[in-house]
Amino acid sequence: MSVPEGKPSDLLSSYDPGLYFDELFGSMDLPAEHTALIRQRLSGLDFDELRRRAQDVERELYNLGITFIVYSEKDAVDRILPFDIIPRVISSKEWAHLEAGVTQRVAALNLFLHDIYHDQKILKDGIIPRDLVEGNHNFRPQMIGLDVPFNTYIHIMGTDLVRDRQGVFRVLEDNGRVPSGVSYVVENRHMMQRVFPDLLQDIGIRPVDNYGHKLLDAMMEIAPQGVDDPQVALLSPGTYNSAYFEHIFLAREMGVPLVEGRDLVVENDRVYMKTTNGLAPLHSIYRRLDDAFLDPRAFNPDSLLGVPGILEAYRKGNVALANAIGTGVADDKAVYCYVPRMIKYYLDQDPIIPNVDTRICREPDALQYTLDHLSELVVKPVGEAGGYGITIGPRASKAELEDCRAKLLADPSNYISQPVVDLSVCPTVTEDGIEPRHVDLRPFAITGKSTWVLPGGLSRVALKKGTLIVNSSQGGGSKDTWVLEGAA
Amino acid sequence: MNLLARYAESIFWMARYMERAENLARILDVHESFSRDTRGATNWFSIVQLNADEKDFFSRHDRPTAEAVIHYYMFDAQNSNSLLSMLRIARENARALRPWISTEMWTQINVFHNKLLEMSVKDVATQNLSKVCTWIKEECQTHTGITEGTFYRDQGWYFYQMGKYIERADQTTRLLDIKYHTLLPSPADVGSTLDASQWTTVLRSTAGYHAFRRVYPRGMSPTTVAGFMLYNEGFPRSVVMCVRQIDGVLTRMRSRYEMRGGSNAMERVDELLAALLSRPIEAVLRDGLHQYLDWVQLQLSGITTEIAQAFFGVDAPLAVQSQSQ
């Protein structure tokens, strides 16, 4: 069934994004002219037809096993990441801005990591408090003085962006350890191409399917010098990891083995894979394992997932790791607040994409302000990921606010606070018709010698009405993200 | 390209469990006609005996009713010999292999497993058993076909075939054994109509009846049927045929990939093949088919152990292949 062109219908006519910036319609000040044709095509669709297509996608995702694993007390269940078939659209101009902003941010964070593991100028100059860096549990003294190829530490970066009421993109969070979600970007596009070819037709959307190729290039670039044909592998915690599908996806796209810790062995400070024909050398590892689990000899001794001795092989330069060890200090929620100053300090530039205004509760004034305005603010623990432990002031009950206050007072340096950002919305298929739902955006940047940003990124959508938390672990879904072709 | 030892092991077992599932479906399918007593009732207990599952079965069931036995062998997740358990293991292996096998192979196993998971013994009221078994058999054959048509032919393919043929040889010995183990022919029955129809069923369950007729147009005796299933050189489920395949696959793989390991496995396969080819069926039947089948099963399990030791890294890590660079 094809989309009738130009026939006005009711599908979007009663749609109301309310006070929020809308990704498909824009705002009064910033109307989204670039989405006119897409809106027109969507308007011509029948709601039942849209629902049917949406169901087709979900069945397909489940059958293909494009799933993540949710653990309950009793067992592990395969879940698909719910997928909404109305795309999120970014103009070529908006994208040029975002691409430059993400590239700038990656550059600053890599310079920062190099600095703190070498001369520590930024600490000596008092730009960032020393204890915030050295006292951070993700700071790795083992990295001090170690040189990494091209001074790149964060080879794969996921930058969480939100868009406020004015339509301004802001950085909410940096993910510089093992950011996930890129497989959904590529698979979502595949799904759209299958179920919605008539919507995509002649729009001119920048492709996303060369991500694996770009990643492999970077992995080869950072491999130890003098190896002719470096062996690359993806190191996964295994089939029970909730992101296992993504590990499979990336290993396949790169055409490299997916290995687990038990497949590897270190001898004479070199890393080998156990194969059917003995040990085979391994040179470059995209590891989807946190620092803490990487090497039981160096970090968590209880880890069964890691490879004993791999840190020493890495320090000797016999194996490359992406991301580098010790990047967690750069994507810490407290360090985040200093990134704009970092950009100024290292690059002498203003941030292209601003942060969300953030208060660091370790600072007495900020703590006081946070306590005084608790009901207006979002309070986040600095060490957690996945949307856990967050208190959203305006939506919290009295008891939740008091609980939050107690935690803040007990351990202020574990928290930051931010104003509630009114995340932009995007038309989304729901039980009750097309309704606005909040979205964020996570672009992915790959850096070897230089930085490349995947056009678009993962648009996560909070499917529950009114909720702002888009994480998959909290009932979020995703949308295909279209970056339109054209001169910026 | 190198094959991870863990992948080789997973491929081997994925193939075995899919083959095993197909054979169990075949056995369940023909069981009704297999084990009717003189009054025409089906003796479901014999299938429990066949698998030596009495202890486990009776720890959860009082009586071997049709429903209990069917549930036990189809849907009982606690029974590692149930179809659901086999599919679960095959799927777990396939899941670990997703970076290596074709998407189509994975998707088919995944969907097959999920469908089986949604079924219950109520869906298989006895009259539908045959239909469900046919479906399972066809899903297994679909797997075989998809694998043949999509699995990239590198080392993994060799391990797949080794797993499949070892399992198939083993299953053929078990199927033959049912006839003897559960229906020890009383002298009066030998040569009777009942006896002939049971031998026909054995052949039919392995899709070998028509081929057998072509080779032996007249008559059917325990000697000819057992000989056909053990030694026939053209029947794809005969033990000799399977062991020849194992022999060929192992030889070709070791030479193509210049593999140092596996000589012990090779030796054991050669020994088994030589032994199979040197005994006439009459002598086997005279000395006891059951003991002979047991011995063959033992040899197959020994070959598996040797393959695991040579290729799956169960020992200490093998010698360093080469220094890098």
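qc> Chain B is about 70% helix and 0% strand.
qc> done
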